[in-house]
Specification:
Elements (H helix, E strand, L loop, with lengths): L2 E4 L6 H12 L4 E3 L6 E5 L3 H11 L8 E3 L3 H7 L5 H10 L4 E6 L14 E5 L4 H10 L3 E2 L14 H8 L5 E4 L10 E6 L2 E6 L5 H8 L3 E2 L29 E4 L5 H11 L3 E5 L11 E4 L6 H15 L6 E5 L6 H12 L4 E2 L1
Parallel strand pairs: 1-8, 2-8, 4-6, 5-9, 10-11, 12-15, 12-16, 13-14, 13-15
Antiparallel strand pairs: 2-3, 3-7, 4-7, 5-6, 9-10
The structure holds threonylcarbamoyladenylate and magnesium ion.
């Protein structure tokens, strides 16, 4: 890393020029978005996008999301936008929403992993927005983490992991949302959620009248299985420490305490309200179970804390798979590598 810029208070003009110079010379910048931090590079350049894959240790067949500043830029990058796709764009962009569209040749093959489609996202975070708008370069940016690890929602969590792999780090403070965008593809005229996120099934139903969840959201997918989204195949969000997720049920807390009796050297990721009911020596508080937005904001940092606790097991308190809870559970099931107690 050559540069570290602090833009928590405001975007600094001279430093913005430097960032644009770095992007134009096909190098990498760690940038905040409203969901999670991203490792960004020009989506127009194979050379730049190849560096992202190397920095993350990312599988070659897993395409990147391309970030844009406005609708005009979308039109420049894709072949065709149907009426339903236009409705989704108008309703959810800018914001934590990614739409898979048919790409044209402007976007490089490395960004799309040679797929005919590309994920397009228009972030609402002002820092990444300004960089794209001022440079007029669409930015390919996956979540800022080594592949397989939890996504990064503040610089402190990912600095050590990524400092040698990027040219510039921009600190924009904590991400407002904390889990990644909802990824949607319109299949046979029905918006289909390939990755749940902050925008929920209900939000999409209200706009389109119709929505489907991919069948693979909670399934363990094999390496050679054909899926709608390559990201579904890979290990994700997992701490090094073994994790077990205890689903929401009437005796959820009793089940957690049972596990803790058997395993003395375990920690718990749980809610503020249950701290005194759960007999854990080490407790990582993710916020209130009545405030899922708070839980979403804290979940990746909590998963990252597990490996620092020096325990041999992390027991995680699950939430109902509804609304934002569905997205949180999607991340947790993967973090536990499907080790779930119903
Ligand atoms: O909130 C976000 O989306 C963050 C911030 C940085 O914008 N980005 C992000 O990117 O989460 P990434 O690369 O970590 O996750 C992108 C997901 C992967 O699961 C990938 O497989 C899927 O989107 N994806 C990307 N392009 C696709 C395509 N053309 N078809 C199907 N799935 C795609
Ligand atoms: Mg990711």
């Amino acid at each position: 890393m050559k540069y570290k810029f602090d833009w928590k208070e405001k975007i600094k003009d001279e430093e913005l020029e430097k960032v644009i110079e770095i992007i134009k010379s096909d190098r990498l910048v760690l940038v905040p978005t409203e969901t999670v931090y991203g490792i960004a590079a020009s989506a127009l350049s194979d050379e730049a996008c190849k560096k992202i894959f190397i920095a993350k240790g990312r599988a070659q067949d897993n395409p990147l999301i391309v970030h844009v500043s406005d609708k005009e830029m979308i039109i420049r990058l894709v072949k065709n936008v149907s009426d339903i796709e236009e409705k989704l764009i108008n309703a959810f962009m800018p914001g934590p929403f990614t739409l898979i569209l048919e790409k044209n040749d402007v976007i490089c093959d490395t960004a799309s992993a040679k797929n005919p489609t590309i994920g397009i996202r228009m972030p609402s975070n002002s820092i990444i927005h300004e960089i794209i708008k001022k440079s007029q370069i669409p930015l390919a940016a996956p979540s800022a983490n080594i592949s397989g690890k939890p996504s990064g929602t503040c610089i402190e969590d990912i600095f050590e992991e990524l400092k040698d792999n990027v040219d510039c780090i921009i600190d924009g403070g904590e991400c407002k949302i904390g889990i990644e965008s909802t990824v949607v593809k319109v299949i046979d005229n029905v918006p289909t959620i390939l990755r749940p996120g902050y925008i929920t099934e209900e939000d999409i139903r209200k706009v389109c009248g119709n929505v489907r969840l991919s069948a693979n959201l909670f399934k363990k997918v094999e390496e050679n299985e054909k899926v709608e989204s390559p990201g579904m195949k890979y290990r994700h969000y997992a701490p090094k420490t073994k994790c077990v997720l205890v689903s929401k049920s009437e005796n959820q807390i009793a089940k957690i305490n049972e596990i803790l009796l058997e395993d003395e050297n375990a920690c718990v990721i749980g809610f503020k309200e249950d701290r005194d009911l759960i007999k854990a020596k080490k407790y990582i508080d993710v916020g209130s179970k009545y405030n899922l937005e708070e839980v979403a904001r804290n979940i990746f940092s909590a998963l990252r804390k597990v490996d620092k606790e020096n325990v041999d097991l992390a027991v995680i308190e699950g939430v109902e798979k509804e609304g934002l809870g569905l997205s949180i559970m999607n991340r947790l099931v993967r973090a536990c590598e499907n080790n779930v107690i119903e």
